Amino acid sequence: MSKNAPSKSGSPDPLLVIVATLLLLAVLATLYFAAQGPSKPLVSEPPVRPRPIIQDETRVVVVTKEVAGGAGVESAAKAAEAKPVEGKPAEAKPSEAKAAEVVTAAPPAVKASADGKIHGRVVLKGTPPPERPIGAAKSDSFCGKSYPDAAPTTRNYVVGADGGLRYAFVRVVNAPAGSGTPAESPVIDQHGCMYEPYVVGVMAGQKFQVKNSDTFLHNVNSGKPKNNPGFNFSQAAGQVNEKSFDNGEMWVKMICNVHPWMAGYVCVAESAFFAVTNDKGEFSLPDGLPAGKYKLQVDHLKAGSATVDIEVGAGKGADVTFELAVK
């Protein structure tokens, strides 16, 4: 018989038997595991927590300030984030009032003086914030030569002995316009890339000088005053220019476009009866105010202003102490 002859009729093919057996086993395994239900995780996982809802809680800080003449109360509110309780929404709580430092300025004190002059002092009540160093002035290749040690600082509150407040501007607000003779013609100097002095006072129409004492170029820019034409010019080392303002105006800001941190202020009074406080907070107005009743006012860039009634006459002046509060 030939080796390639087919098997006898009725005998199953061994290969088909193996395939059929494997298929049957697969079906039985599927039926078995289906009956066991879904498989369980091998590693237990923590239950899913709901994401907390964060709500804002407002905390109110009340700051009370009183100025001379009986000013009111200022309130400020500051929002703070509330810490949510894990697993549930944060609940709004009643506002918490924080205790604030109360800075109170006493009303101006007036005493009659026998010399017929108007003089006195401006003092600051409260502790002012520290002044900030002007690092740009020290790091500048030219300006920095004026500051081998520490950088210059801002001049928001310049306070001397016993609280004397410098750079406050005191004037008789209702003196006849154009009356009196100014004490002197001021000079606004640029030294060490700073305007000196920081605040000057002039009478409307009075000439004053702007000087550059540094050895390099500056730019003098008065900005855009409300009541007067402004000016803007370059100024070489040693150069002096004469300027004036024809109308009364407070706090005309002088800047330098070359050194942007430079700033100084000019206060223009309608009459000659004004003064800027010195490093002890002292002031003295020129003589010549006609006898009568007047309002004397002090203004400061940061501490605000206060006004008091005074009376002057023959041999009768006013010695006034103003108290301003830190703001």
Low-pLDDT runs of 5+ residues are: 1-8, 40-99
The helicity comes to: under 10%
Strand order across the largest sheet: 6-22-7-19
What count of structural domains? Answer: 2
| Quaternary structure | single chain
The assigned structural class equals mainly beta
Number of helical elements: 2
Give the H and E element order.
HEEEEEEEHEEEEEEEEEEEEEEE
CATH topology of the largest domain: Immunoglobulin-like
Biggest pleated-sheet summary? 4 strands, mixed
- Rounded radius of gyration (Å): 41 Å
Proper CATH architecture of the largest domain: Sandwich
Determine the N-to-C terminus distance.
123 Å
Write down how many β-strands occur, each being a DSSP E stretch of 2 or more residues.
22
Q: What's the CATH first level of the largest domain?
A: Mainly Beta
Strand content: 35-45%
What is the CATH superfamily of the largest domain? Cupredoxins -  blue copper proteins
Mean pLDDT reading: 82
Descriptive notes:
The protein starts with 13 loop residues before the first helix and ends with a strand. Mean pLDDT is 82; it is low at 1-8 and 40-99. The chain folds into two domains: 56-103, no CATH class; 106-325, Immunoglobulin-like, CATH 2.60.40. The longest helix has 22 residues, at 14-35. It contains two helices and 22 strands. It is mostly beta strands and 327 residues long. The strands form seven sheets. A four-stranded mixed beta sheet has the order 6-22-7-19, with no helix packed on it. It has a four-stranded antiparallel beta sheet with strand order 18-8-20-21, with no helix packed on it. The chain has a four-stranded mixed beta sheet with strand order 10-9-12-15, with no helix packed on it.
